[in-house]
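FAQ: What does the model actually see?

It sees only this:
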Amino acid sequence: MSDITSERADILALLDDQRHNFLITVRGIDDEQARTRSTVSDLTLGGLVKHVTHTERDWVRKILERDETAEFDMESAMGTYYMADGETLAGLLDDYRETAEETARVVASLDDLDLLVPLPTAPWAPEREWWTARRVLLHVLRETSHHSGHADIIRESLDGANTTMQMGADAGMEF
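And it is asked to produce this:
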């Protein structure tokens, strides 16, 4: 990606860094742990992996398709928070990696980050809004960061592990 602008490179680097942190949170768990509710929330680590994958993929699709008639599908969106029977954490992680690669390809291929993208209408946004591709990508970063915090709390409640301590251990720090 030698022709990628520094702005694009910066956005992709921040997104990669946040994905890396998010993936630390699910390191070393099995499918049963990925499905386990460890807080009062319905959220699970596997469900969050599935959700951030779906969210990123969906927003990138919005950039590519620019559908001016799209409507938000709440039922479909809510289903992304749960691991379905037969889904595995390994499979969800493969999907996440593929989605990240597709995002990088799309960002590199865009003529302009100022490209206007129509958002789907929704009950909370009945009038169509338009965001730049840049804002969409920053929103994906925000969504990933937001759910990384959820994942860290779930993991800490599950078995005491947390991302910050693991990052320190990865850097050779002893605790």
